[in-house]
Design brief:
The complex is a heterodimer of chains A (about 650) and B (about 525). Chain A is mainly alpha-helical and about 650 residues long. Chain A has helices at about 20-35, 40-65, 95-120, 130-155, 160-175, 185-215, 220-225, 230-250, 255-260, 265-275, 280-285, 290, 295-320, 325-345, 350-375, 395-410, 415-425, 435-460, 480-500, 505-510, 525-545, 560-565, 570-610, 615-620, 620-645, and strands at about 70-80, 85-95. Chain B has about 525 residues and is mainly α. The chains are: A mainly alpha (about 650), B mainly alpha (about 525).
Amino acid sequence: VEQTVEFGAATGVLSSMWLLIALPAAGAAVLLLAGRRADRWAPWLGCGSVGAAFVLGLVYLFQLRGLDPRSAELNLYDFIHVGRFNVDVGLLFDPLSAVFVLLITGVGFLIHVYAVGYMEHAPRDQEHESAATARRRFFGYFNLFVAAMLTLVLGNNYVMLYLGWEGVGLASYLLIAFWYSRPSATTAGKKAFLMNRVGDAAFVLAIFLMFATLGTVNFQQVFAGVDRLSTTTILVMGLLLLLGAAGKSGQFPLQAWLPDAMEGPTPVSALIHAATMVTGGVYLIARSNPIFSANHTLQTVVVSVGALTLLIGCIIGCAKDDIKRVLAWSTVSQIGYMFLGVGLGGAAYALAIIHLLSHGFFKADLFLGAGSVMHGMKDQVDIRRFGALSRYLRITWLTFAAGWLAIIGIPPLSGFFTKEPIIAAAFERGDWTSWLFGGAALAGAALTAFYMTRLFVLTFHGPKRWTDDITEPHESPPIMTVPLVLLAVGSFVAGGLMVWRDGLVHWLTPVLGEAAEHEPVIPHGLITTLSIVVTVLGAGGAYWLFRAGTALEPQPAGPIVTAARNNLYNDAFNEAVFEVPGRWLTRALVYVDGKGIDGAVNGLAATVGGSSGRLRRLQTGFVRSYAMSMLTGALLVVAAFLALQYGWLR
Amino acid sequence: VVEVKDFPFLSVLTVAPLVGAAVVAFLPGTRSELAKRVALVWSLAVLALTVVMWVAFDAGGPRFQFRESYPWIPDWGVRFTFAADGIALVMLALIAVITPVVILASWHDAEPSRRSVPVYFALLLALEGTMIGVFAAADVFLFYVFFEVMLVPMYFLIGSYGGHQRQYAAVKFFLYSLVGGLFMLAAVIGLWVAGGHTFDWQALTQIDMATTTERWLFLGFFLAFAIKAPFFPFHTWLPDAGGAAPAGAAALLVGVLDKVGTFGILRYCLPLFPNASRYFAPLAFALALVGIIYAALLAVGQNDLKRLVSYTSIAHFGFIGVGIFAFTTQAGTGAVLYMVNHGLATGLLFLVVGMLVARRGSALVSDFGGAGKLVPLLAGVLLFAGLASLALPGMAPFVSEFLVLVGTFTVNKTVAVIATSGIILAAAYVLWMIQRTMQGTLNPTLTGVPGMHRDISLREKAVVAPLIALIVLLGFYPKPVIDVVNPAVQQTLQQDVGESDPTPTAANPEAAK
């Protein structure tokens, strides 16, 4: 394994790389603080700052190509320096962060442009805020997101990564709850933030563990020190990072927030909850590859999470009727493939990143296409009420078709070149688990073909099943269709270009390392054939079933479909196990604190005080409760004290 | 040569607000506008002087600076001794920043009470003076006196100008503090006896004590500070006081005055009773951890915004307690930084809640609902304050919370893991509060309230702007404060307590040298 753990210092043009973050951050600050006077030009500032960052990203990329080692590290200033704990505000531009920068700013720019058109009119229930003000707020949050996401991928240490990590979480919260007078939107925003916080708590614990064992949180020093860590430490550190990654990327067991996040405006779903932010977990694991590669058990856990989640996403995706939710579950599932890839390790790290990039194109294309459909259909999202739209929304139809063929993996579109290698890699794991994970990946491919074809056919083909208020759906304006076309082109060719002569794999080698080849349990050619066959079968089956449309309302179904419609009861589980007991605990504690310490105790004290009138007159009534609460408290404290003293809490 | 650092900053800073209080108090009740302006200008002058003092402070210099000492009661060895280390300096700066902000925020707060408006502002200045005194004192008896006197202005602020149940809350606040103070007085006298009849802090750190004596004296001080901070289970006075106090006074109470408790532990318990501090550290951990979880859960369940904020503060004080008793430089510096940042963040939260309560005429969460539609900018400020309170990275409280937790983790993983779960609960109480008050369907009763149709005013913008700016600035660039605090914390831990940071368990053998 050949790997650079030594980063080069940023010189020349690259020493201005902080501009990548500063431009969108400044955009966000201006848009959010300038008030209504900025309403008119807000979209152009919002797009401009991201577009400028993209151009800069290209410039830096060309600089990076000529460097040896191929990395540029820039420490701007002391962030937190206390004793041995020393964190810089430091950036790292290397092959991995470079491709992320281009994805975030490139696809991000297209989605920003699309949003100029999409956000022009506010929905009907949002008339308390002028559409122009809402759009300014929207672009402010959008720029904030881009700045945070770039911080996430450019930080040269785990604290900077965490800073961006939480920043994108904030932007995601603000944008999911963007229509803040809709209860469902605010609940979804809160759910996303809270579930992410569970992952974040694990993530910070991993950072603490790095500092406690290695005395540093810098990538370079942490990676250099991995071989000094015990197996258990690596396992615990990796599991904590994995839980953090699962929260951000909507992976099992923290996947439930992502589909609800579709409450946000559609460009948000495209940029944050499909193309970029939710891939943050994949980035975290790929970036931490020296840690994950150091422990086989850890890798097996990552692979299992990926395989399980990709199946969960597919199964639920088959049962959903909301166009955005189907796409959301497909995101969960596709990121499952990426987790599978980074879990397999070795060469599959790069495969996962390549799939992440091509997914960025076709999923953004699909989401923006869905937005265009909704735009033409008065915000209808139920695919049971679409049909025959290919005749009315020609551009949307064609671009959506590109995304559809790309995601199911029909050659020569992007998805084929990027997903099939992951399936093959799963079969190459080398022991009996090859069959398990390879089989799961293959089954996922068939299911993906099925539910995506169902979505495509029900939306664009078959008979009209429109609601009565729709007579003539209209195609979106050019400001929305031009980004769609560009993304469709990307969905078509990006995958092939990236795997051309293993170009991107070589590009990423300095970060992700080179791997020994394993022999697959079945020949590679057979795997390729199989994955195409199951895809065609899945797609054909869906076409056969849905070519003539479907019922307008969900029909009664067996236990599996019902379970899938209910997100495999994950929400019900969370509610029964965490929410309801939490609510009761909170209520009980409020009662104890108010009535117990200040009330019931008051009553007890009153009995004592009642025997002595003189004493009672001296007291104001509060001293008694004070004394009793002290006593109650003292008992609790003694108990806790003993617990700590005798070691079983240490 | 007379240098800037020879100026008697600390005594002047203590006395100046008290003089200002006297001036404002004697203005006739009809001249309330004048009283407000005098109070504001006076507090700004105090701020200006504090800024000069900050600049004159030499971060790499002696531990205590600006020392002054004047005789007071020679027979007992009591002196007016003032001195500031980095920890005291940042607390003084916090007071100096918050007080003018609170005065400006309280512009109309005294009017509904039908009591004298000038007296209200005089009380705020008097509170500032006594709080500066308590942090600047370097004589144990002088500290005790300020510790008790400080109660008086706050008692009247709550009892005379507060809201619902103000008398109950004020008396409860006073009694709790007084009882704590009595324990401390006993310990102060014990210390005087044990220490050879002196109250000088410096001299007292040098004395040897029997183990039992040391533990009892520690407990006397600790109890007073634990009530003041407050730590679980001595906390029940705070939600009542915070709920009843006018918003500005509540911001001062929770943002600054309560910090005397945690400051006292750092300045008095640790240096004077190092062995007892180590002995009782598990107890303090237990109290702090219970506080973090218990108070956060209670905050989730509150239906009164001011009580809710009070409970969040109890949870935050738990983090400070953990940080102090972990005895590492990261955790200790984090704890001090936490005191400052919490003052800014919770101060802001209390003030913006006050603005909402003043408009609505109620602090009940259920009386709001969807209010963001009517007052979007205030909703935005509330969200910002809430995010600061949950220690979002990029805001000042993140730096302190992270330092506390990382420093604690290196010495006690269980404590750090339990405390870290508090960050999930913090998100829960903040976001649920925002959702119930600002988001969702508009509560129909709100449209009938005229005040709810006025978004943030220019004066209110001037109130929140400096706090927001400081929270963001110290969130991205905490170095100026860390550089001042860190040496003082290191000296406290290494010289006084005798603890040094653990070496990383898997450190590079070469780098560890």
